[in-house]
Amino acid sequence: MGNICRSPLLEGWAGHRRPDAQVAYTVDSAGTGGWHAGDPPDARAVAAARRRGVDISAQRARQLQANDFQRFDLLLCADRDNLAAVQTLAPSDARGRIALALDWCGVSRGGEVPDPYYGQERDFDHVCQLASEAAEGLLRRLASQA
Fold first, then answer.
1. CA distances from 136 to 19, 84, 96 (A)
2. What is the CATH number of the domain that holds 34?
């Protein structure tokens, strides 16, 4: 979608946990749509992360680019709609594996990160918690594959 709510929280938590990682990794986020390109994360997402000691305020939305499929080994998606969109956009020679974030990170089999955009503060807090859990799962899985 637009890369201002869920993806910045997932990126923020993965970056926040990176110093604890046993393996080096690069993290970035992108939306399947470009309508928010260049915009900061939603203020409610920034506030939810800040309440937990994670600063995502410097991030800027961007749209997924063709070279992302070569640049990254793994493209994690918040929900099935984004997963389908990313799979459709993937070139035939894509290097990056595409998966649901909560599933790949071991948080919830087939789980989706709900879009909090039209919700309340508690919805952003919930997504923030899921992003934290996904980051922990990401570290565990990357370490086990190293």
1. 12, 25, 21
2. 3.40.50.2300
